[in-house]
Amino acid sequence: MTGSLSNGEGYGDIVQLWPMHTYCDAGEVIVFYDGAEWRPADKDHEGYAIPILGVALEDGDGSNFGQVLLRGIVRLKAGGIADSGGTEGDPLYLSDDGTVTFAVPGSGAFARIVGYCIDEDDDIIYFNPGTTWVEVA
Fold first, then answer.
1. One pLDDT digit (tens) per residue for the chain, 137 residues
2. Which of 16, 46, 61, 67 is most buried, judged by most C-beta within 10 A?
3. Are 112 and 133 in contact (CB under 8 A)?
4. pTM above 0.85, yes or no
């Protein structure tokens, strides 16, 4: 089933709530920001790392209530796994600008596991964001 996914496609728990900011692209990890809208998630800012996370399944236009995957199998946008060197089954952490990484974030960032790698070459992951996070000292 995962081989048939295109970038920004997935299956699992999908909702259509709250508008997606124009910054959101299909296949990005996004955060429900400030109780108002979805925006690209980022490990370096508490407001973009800690609230509820999802993966955009369509591009945002600033007003649409686009589909967001909250948990399930998804193919991120091209380059959605920002680094290499991990293997299938490894945990993935929130990174920058809606991407994920195998590397644990460094000092001053918020470390939060968001899922597990299914196919690194095609940016396919099991997205299941943890409810625990740590601000790295």
1. 556 899 999 999 999 988 888 889 999 999 998 888 999 999 999 999 999 999 999 998 888 888 999 999 999 999 999 998 899 999 999 999 999 999 999 999 999 999 999 999 999 999 999 999 999 98
2. 67
3. yes
4. yes
